[in-house]
Amino acid sequence: MTSKCRLHVFGRSCSLIITGPRNNGDELIAAAEQELRRLEVKFCSYEQHSLVSQINQVAGTGAFIELDAEARGLFDYATRLWEQSNHLYDPTTRLLQNCYSDNGGLTATESQLQSLLSIIGWSKLEITEAGARLESQGMLIDLNSLVCAYAVDCVRKLLLRDDVASAMIELDQDVITIGKAADGANWLIGVRHPQGVRTAIARLKVNNAGFTKRGDFEKRISFNGENFGRGLSPIDGHPIPGLLSVVVVAENCLTASGAASIARLKTEQAAMAWLDTLGVQWMAIDRELSCHGPLAPR
Questions:
Q1: How far out from the chain centre does Cα 199 lie?
Q2: Which coenzyme or cofactor does it need (predicted)?
């Protein structure tokens, strides 16, 4: 029996389609939702009592917040992304978003921007056996995007333990699948095309794999006649002149998320060359709204 459910979790729309091996689809839907909500409450920065919020609340006090094995694994992965991106991937840059309006205009003064930059930097997060702490008052970290990818992977593992052979978990820009659809059709994900009088849709096959999109060309920043994505540099606080959107299909969602997150923080040519070395399927939209990559429409 195939069960379907739509819910709101992580502040986003989530769709679950699960075919249980023992006509237990509804039971599996409930277990999947419980796992998603567990991780939301545990890690999301907008949850007042989450582990991340606790770290943010005691920033600069010298107090450590204890980390369990799951939390340490997630923080270790964020550190690897920070290292692989030459420190451009930085979950402490969330503060910088407050300096820009919804349409991408800089609303902070240069002195305000510099003041924030002085308390930004993943290297200012200390992790020891006692736990984690942030160096300076006012600092904060935000792992929400990473947690979403991790969460759908966790649901996939949960379902595989119950011998599920067909499922799709779609959490906004993060998707994971098991096998194919119950009727044997391919799992397909629609991606908007940036050019043309009519909006075209690229239909990407995502069977037994993870899909992630990072960046949104439709919400780009326009500055001095040029397009920029909303990735902000931890060095100067300004938009990074990189790819506007990156889509990656990989063996799991966390891998896809990491690749896409790093790629959109590199310069365009460097990002595409780097994606080619990873052995994943990808599509990127550059600042001229052209599509590139193995998954780009032909």
A1: 25
A2: Mg(2+)
